[in-house]
Amino acid sequence: MTPPPSSAAAPRPVAPVIVEFPRTSWQSYGLAGLTRAALRPVADRWPHTPRGLATVDRIAARAGRAAGRLHGRRTREHFRTTTIAGIPALIVRAPAIEAPERTVLHFHGGGFVFGNPDMYRDFALRLSVAARAEVVLFDYRHPPHADVDHMSADCLNVYRWALEHTAPQRLVTSGDSAGGNLMFGTLATARDAGLAMPSAALAQSAWLDLTHRHPRRAPIDAFFSLRFAGRSVRLLRTEEQLPAQVRPLELDLRGLPPVLLQVGAEEPLREANMQMANRLGAQGVSAELQLWRRQVHVFQAFAAMLPEARAAFAETTVFLNNLAGASAPSTRRSLS
Question: Structural domain tally of the chain?
Answer without folding.
Answer: 1
